[in-house]
Design brief:
Blueprint: H1 4-27, H2 35-91, H3 95-126, H4 156-169, H5 191-201, H6 214-223, E1 227-231, E2 244-247, E3 251-257, E4 260-264, E5 281-285, E6 292-296
Helix pairs in contact: 1-2, 2-3, 4-5
């Protein structure tokens, strides 16, 4: 993560470079006189003033966002510790400690929400209007998550599925579990129940079609008539946001885009409800060996075998 100190240092360097540029323009006075020179100096100073003001504002806002994000990470870690301590106190039936940790959990959760709003506000101030992009087809989207977002033109159902996955990754009250009583969002998920639930929240009835674990997801998803099966281990160039990465023998995740995937992972499970590490449900680089992908087509599909 870029620190606010780094941004401030970069801003200082930028200001120094601007001063050097202005001095270079001024040095022309000893070599070139006349109305053209005066016009050049005036235009250069006008440009430098406007550009410097815009850069100052954007970089100062970004430095603020960096500082706030560092505080967010610390608070998120403290929340995970408080939840783990609460679970331990609950197991020991230490009701006094449970009340104490419950109050801390509430405090940290409120602080995280406040920090999110402050970070989003700071990042809005750091954005450059000239870099904004738009599209006249499809739906341009941004999921509300601090670290990752879904951007670009993405169909409605995959967009909603990915947004739900990212919301779970950003909420440490949900972690990894294969226990039947916990794996359907009460409060946790395993890899398949998370992907299935993401699509259910997108209005695609894959669970109704029989999807319940990695071994029957392919059959159930295809039976809806809304997906196609593309066999083989895909490269980044083969993938689209929302593609279901599937190994029917072991694991499944959703492809987010830009070489990233989002999912729930057994390797980070610790047996405690919720995400104690912040990594049980998270975004990572594309990895693993996949047997193929399930791609949402909305019914316009020719399934490969």
């Amino acid at each position: 993560m870029v620190s606010s100190g780094t941004v401030t240092s970069d801003l200082s360097t930028f200001n120094s470079n601007i001063s050097n540029y202005q001095n270079s323009i001024g040095d022309l006075s000893s070599q070139w006189k006349g109305s053209s020179y005066e016009n050049l100096v005036a235009k250069a100073n006008e440009f430098v003033s406007e550009y410097k003001a815009a850069i100052d504002k954007q970089m100062t806002s970004f430095a603020s966002a960096c500082s706030l994000y560092a505080e967010y990470v610390q608070t998120k870690s403290a929340l995970a510790s408080a939840r783990a301590a609460y679970a331990q106190a609950e197991a020991e039936k230490d009701y006094g400690s449970m009340n104490q940790y419950a109050a801390l959990i509430s405090q940290y959760e409120s602080k995280l929400q406040s920090l999110k709003s402050q970070i989003e506000s700071a990042l809005a101030g750091a954005s450059s209007p000239s870099l904004a992009a738009s599209s006249t087809t499809g739906q341009s989207i941004t999921a509300s998550t601090l670290s990752y977002s879904v951007t670009g033109v993405v169909a409605e159902a995959p967009r909603k599925a990915l947004e739900y996955a990212l919301s779970m990754a950003d909420d440490n009250s949900h972690g990894y579990s294969q226990e039947a009583r916990r794996r359907w969002g009460t409060p946790d998920y395993d890899c398949s129940s998370l992907v299935i639930t993401c699509w259910e929240n997108a209005g695609v009835p894959v669970r109704e079609a029989g999807a319940g674990y990695t071994g029957n997801m392919r059959k159930a998803f295809l039976s809806t008539g809304l997906f196609e099966w593309i066999p083989g281990n895909p490269s980044v160039e083969d993938l689209q946001p929302g593609d279901v990465l599937l190994n029917e023998n072991s694991h499944t995740e959703l492809y987010l885009g830009d070489g990233k995937m989002v999912g729930a992972r057994h390797g980070d499970a610790d047996g405690v409800p919720g995400d104690s590490s912040g990594n049980e449900i998270s975004v990572t680089d594309l990895a693993r060996e996949w047997q193929g992908i399930l791609r949402y087509t909305g019914g316009n599909t020719t399934t490969q075998v």
